[in-house]
């Protein structure tokens, strides 16, 4: 899962002619869900969103407080284009989770944010809609987040190691046979040389 977190003076979302959500000072979060994401990714991103220290303390010292520490608002916007890969210059979005699965998954992210924080301070856009997102970036401050890849369990790691060992044995065997072929070819070449010499004499 990927997320762009921006510290904002204010932000709002409009879909068509409808004003969907707006916040004052706080953070705007663009969330890109991949087809491989699980609850583990949700937990990681939610924890980071709420605990990033993007705000100053009462003495004006920067990077001391999170949005939760300051009691500020969070505006979330689903953003599948964060999962973009490029084919030449053309964006490709095959790594993004399909919309039918992504919507309940995204709703779960919002729910986890509301459980961990104050529900009334978590706002969002309109999933799947063509939106205009108005962001007044404060700083500017923009942080990129990506949930870590899932660890490989011991059985899977052992399986991968065995596969690698088999490949190495196959490669070694191939090189050995190739070496024998070269020796054989040299012997044939030598024999042909001797025959040529006998014919010449």
UniProtKB/TrEMBL annotation:
Q: What is its EC number?
A: 3.1.1.96
**Protein source organism:** Pangasianodon hypophthalmus
The protein's name is: D-aminoacyl-tRNA deacylase
What is a single Pfam family found in this protein's UniProt entry?
A: Tyr_Deacylase
**What is the annotated localization of this protein?**
Cytoplasm
- Indicate, by first and last residue, each region the UniProt record lists as having compositional bias (Basic and acidic residues): 156-167
Taxonomy, top ranks, is:
Eukaryota, Metazoa, Chordata, Craniata, Vertebrata
Q: Which reaction does it catalyse?
A: a D-aminoacyl-tRNA + H2O = a tRNA + a D-alpha-amino acid + H(+); glycyl-tRNA(Ala) + H2O = tRNA(Ala) + glycine + H(+)
Its top-level enzyme class, in one word, is hydrolase
């Amino acid at each position: 899962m990927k997320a762009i977190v921006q510290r904002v003076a204010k932000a709002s979302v409009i879909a068509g002619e409808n004003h969907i959500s707006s916040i004052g000072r706080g953070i705007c979060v663009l969330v890109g869900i991949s087809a491989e994401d699980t609850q583990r990714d949700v937990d990681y991103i939610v924890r980071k969103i709420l605990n990033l220290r993007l705000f100053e303390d009462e003495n004006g010292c920067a990077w001391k407080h999170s949005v939760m520490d300051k009691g500020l608002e969070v505006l979330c916007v689903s953003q599948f284009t964060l999962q973009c890969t490029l084919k030449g210059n053309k964006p490709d979005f095959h790594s993004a989770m399909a919309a039918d699965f992504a919507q309940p998954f995204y709703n779960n992210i919002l729910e986890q944010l509301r459980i961990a924080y104050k529900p009334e301070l978590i706002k969002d856009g309109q999933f799947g809609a063509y939106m205009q997102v108005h962001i007044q970036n404060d700083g500017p401050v923009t942080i990129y987040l990506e949930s870590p890849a899932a660890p490989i369990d011991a059985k899977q790691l052992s399986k991968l190691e065995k596969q690698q060992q088999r490949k190495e044995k196959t490669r070694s065997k191939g090189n050995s046979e190739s070496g024998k072929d070269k020796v054989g070819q040299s012997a044939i070449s030598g024999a042909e040389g001797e025959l040529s010499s006998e014919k010449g004499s």
